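Subject: two folds for Thursday's group meeting

Dear M.,

Sorry for the delay on this. The cluster queue was jammed most of the week, so I only got both jobs back this morning. I'm pasting them in the order they finished. Each block is the input sequence followed by the predicted structure tokens. Could you check whether the formatting survives your parser before we put anything on slides? The first protein is the one we discussed after the seminar.
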Amino acid sequence: MSRVQRVILDVLKPHQPNVLDFARAIAAIGDDYRVDVRVIEVDENTETLQVEIEGSDIDFEAVNVAISENGASLHSIDVVSVASTTE
């Protein structure tokens, strides 16, 4: 068994929702999620983001759904940290 404890994602989203609301939507998925968002690039219609999520057991599918529900798209998974468990 293993648990995803950290991911860094490349995400493209429209200007709305703003970055604060976008981060809150992802953080709300898990009880212990820490979400850091860095705006990499801004153009007329979109923002390119680096989204870092840390938690004891990240539900990646739920994160991906939250990204889509906020009008954004996942471009790539750039970093993953996974820990094995004895459970």
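Second protein, same layout:
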Amino acid sequence: MKYVIFGVSALVLLLAFMFAGSYYKGQQAEKLGFMARENASIFVRDHSPTLGSDDAKVYLVEFMDPACETCAAFSPLVKQMMDADPGKIKLVLRYAPFHPGADYFVKILEAAKKQGRYWETLDVMYRSQGYWASHHNPQPEKIWQFLPAAGLDLEKIKQDMNDPAIAQLIAQDLADAKTLNVRKTPGFFANGKPLQTFGYQQLQELVQNEIRASYPD
């Protein structure tokens, strides 16, 4: 009899835990969705790099770290997702350089933006990441051999990346990441709704749900 009581108690506790987890996630999604409507700047700042049509109704916000292997792996997948629904998705990048020294690479990206080569530089960084950030160990000196492939003026990059304004925007993004409870990268939000269970299929489902809601026809 005591085994039956123990089993029933364990089942009740498990169901209670599952309900509490589901309720918490629902509350989080509702809270962040509200923030997206009332305080959109926490998701999209003026300095945020964007890719895609300005008329897109689905904003996919990604908190990324240039030294993050998963960010590099997801980059082509996100672009495939955008290509599959042309004009409907706008990608917004935010910085969350959690790896030690990763802000160095963000500074290069922001300097490259001044030369109109932001996305080309990010693509080069991700494709060469295994050489300069192997095993989550960023080594700034190794990135420079790859940057010419992005068509950059390297001397100008070295000057512009020291602009104090870049450090300020990194600090702003990190503050927003903290507010949104982003603890790992990549961290995704679709129209303010967080990706609660990480995975590419789950990201597709989240984005597709927003596309269906935004483009009912």
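Two things I noticed about the second structure. Strands lie at 50-51, 58-64, 89-95, 187-190, 193-194. The chain has a mean pLDDT of 89.

Cheers,
T.
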